[in-house]
Amino acid sequence: MNSTLKITLLGTGTSLGVPIIGCDCPVCNSKDPRDNRLRSSALVEWKNQVFLIDAGPDFRQQMLRTSVRKIDAILLTHEHKDHVSGLDDIRALNFLLRKPIDIYAEKRVQDSIRKNFAYVFSMIQYPGIPQMNLHQISPGSFEINGLKIITIRAFHYKLPILGFRFGDFTYISDTNYIPPEQMAKISGTRILVLNALRWEAHLSHNSIPEAIKLIQEIKPERTYLTHLSHQAGKYEDLIKELPAGVEPGYDGLVIYL
Ligand SMILES: [Zn+2]
Ligand SMILES: [Zn+2]
Ligand SMILES: [Zn+2]
């Protein structure tokens, strides 16, 4: 397909993934592959550049599932383990591409990476460790190889996180509050990927009703929900409950814009 923007949802599950170890609920036992959710991540192919949003514990499996063999940059929303713990596996990309991987994150997220992956930054470099170049970003915008990416400040309870806008596509996960002045940056988005955990309210994530309310303010053409819990129900049931233009995301879903 001749498109300038291709988005692949690599993972659409909350921090525990779906199914959850040991859970006997109908969602965790579902035979529908759309109910199997790896931890949330997306691949954005835009004007011959490939960007990965987040690299959680399923990063290796997600990369094995895609046919993409290059990544120009990894963009991190925040430092929670379900979004960064797969970074050790960028070693395979280092071998393949013969270079360090560029990682874009806020200062606080970088501090967490330096602490949690201390061996990567230690004076004594053990052979074969991951090679990464950290680049600092903040709410506003930044450029990678001439492409402008807008960063949206949102809150995950009290933790500030970043959403990313690439042209008319916006990805925001792990939030339940977007300040009014940030909403202008999302305005005009045609495709939105937004987190929604479950029907009931949660301290740090949008519930499905809260996500719908936000979507009705943003008015994108299409929205895909991500970071879903088993408590959101089965894909086939959930899609019937959502308004027109809103659907549950699922792992492997490809969106063209
Ligand atoms: Zn998360
Ligand atoms: Zn379950
Ligand atoms: Zn989080």
Name the descriptors.
single chain; alpha/beta; binds zinc ion; Metallo-beta-lactamase, Chain A; 257 residues
Write a structural description:
The chain starts with a strand and ends with a strand. The mean pLDDT is 97. The chain has a single domain (5-256), classed as Ribonuclease Z/Hydroxyacylglutathione hydrolase-like (Metallo-beta-lactamase, Chain A, 4-Layer Sandwich), CATH 3.60.15.10. The protein is an alpha/beta fold. The chain is built from eight helices and 14 strands. It has helices at 59-65, 81-84, 91-97, 107-116, 118-121, 180-186, 208-218, 235-241; strands spanning 5-11, 41-46, 49-53, 73-75, 101-105, 132-136, 140-144, 147-156, 159-166, 169-172, 191-195, 222-226, 246-248, 254-256. 22% of the residues lie in helices and 29% in strands. Strands 6-5-4-3-2-1-14 form a seven-stranded mixed beta sheet. One zinc ion is lined by residues 15, 40, 80, 82-83, 174, 227.
> Whole-number radius of gyration?
17 Å
CATH topology assignment: Metallo-beta-lactamase, Chain A
Query: Beta-sheet strand percentage?
Result: 25-35%
Shape: globular
Give me the secondary-structure topology.
Layout: E1 5-11, E2 41-46, E3 49-53, H1 59-65, E4 73-75, H2 81-84, H3 91-97, E5 101-105, H4 107-116, H5 118-121, E6 132-136, E7 140-144, E8 147-156, E9 159-166, E10 169-172, H6 180-186, E11 191-195, H7 208-218, E12 222-226, H8 235-241, E13 246-248, E14 254-256
Parallel strand pairs: 3-4, 4-5, 5-6, 10-11, 11-12, 12-13
Antiparallel strand pairs: 1-2, 1-14, 2-3, 7-8, 8-9, 9-10
The chain binds zinc ion (3 copies).
